[in-house]
Amino acid sequence: IAGSGRHVRREFTESLRCPHCGGGGWQVVVESEDGKEVREGHLRCRCGADFPIHAGVVDFLDPADEQLRREVAGWIEMAGPLPDHLVTQMTALPYYPHDHWLEVAPDFFQIFDHFSFEGKRVIDLGAGRTWSSRHLATVGRAAEVVAVDVLTTKYLGLETADIFFHDDGIFFERIRADLHRTPIRDAWADVVFSCASLHHSSDLGRLYAEADRVLKPGGHLLFLSEPSKKASIEETQPQNEETAHGINEHIYSFAEWLEPLRARGFRCRRLVPRSIRHQLVYPRPTFQETVPPVLLPLTRSERGLGVLERLLESSWAGPLLYRYWSLPLTVIARKPG
């Protein structure tokens, strides 16, 4: 997208769907703008609904949604101070020497070897700090990227995008919204993408229905770095730092991830996440304890790891292993059409 801020915003409003009336017909009230976009102002629907624009982010969140309010507060509380020296960390993401990022980075860049984003319209659900949107626009060469998240705070949420705009000379839209109520019109997107975010949903069926709505026929839903619990684990919410802060965390099994998608007619292709090998080569006690005992001998040699990877790739053995082993999940799902 190029042009003046006012032109960009008016052009993009044609892609928006009002969460109140389901329509459009937008008026942009500009309070300040720069060379890229409207920075401060309001977006008004012809139905009378009004949505503020702050730091270039359009806010579609329902202020009466107490659960989302608590979750946003929990993320901010857990993050603590967010000083400006975090810029260097933001520009390095997803590479960062912390267990979580060491698992996310290889799985994220793996996707570019198996799927082309070039020339496509992409919605990045749960984009957070927007590093993924940055790489979808640059490495992936997507035509348009829309970052969606409930967090806006710089170094934690959508306002972090300003760093990438400055450093890379790129631009993408940012929308603050509930992932279950994406304010994008029907059949707009070629791709709905998400990295380590969909497990924050308490209703995957509803989330998939929304992804189905915004995707064109034949479009793709891609999600990666999602935790998939073994079938014997009964609990649906982990007891961790996030849930202690009121953040909506869920753990789903392989079947719970895929069955609602297949019920909607999506054809699902599963990749073996590269992070699995990393965790086997550099084992941590929390991961090593999850390895089924019968498979432990395979984790002790390069040949054994190769056999294990081939089993995971198998269309029959892979799902069976996910039934008995908690593993990260990467899925490319194609909508019918």
Based on the model shown, name its key terms.
337 residues; 34% helix; alpha/beta; 23% strand; globular; disordered N terminus; 12-stranded mixed sheet
Describe the structure.
The protein has 337 residues and is of the alpha/beta class. Helices cover 34% and strands 23% of the residues. It has helices at residues 5-13, 66-79, 87-92, 99-110, 131-138, 161-168, 204-214, 241-244, 254-263, 274-281, 285-288, 302-313, 317-324, and strands at 26-33, 38-45, 50-54, 57-59, 121-125, 144-149, 173-176, 189-195, 215-229, 252-253, 267-271, 327-334. Strands 1, 2, 3, 4, 5, 6, 7, 8, 9, 10, 11 and 12 form a 12-stranded mixed beta sheet that branches. Strand 5, helix 5 and strand 6 form a beta-alpha-beta unit. The protein is globular. It starts with a helix and ends with a strand. Mean pLDDT is 93; it is low at 1-8.
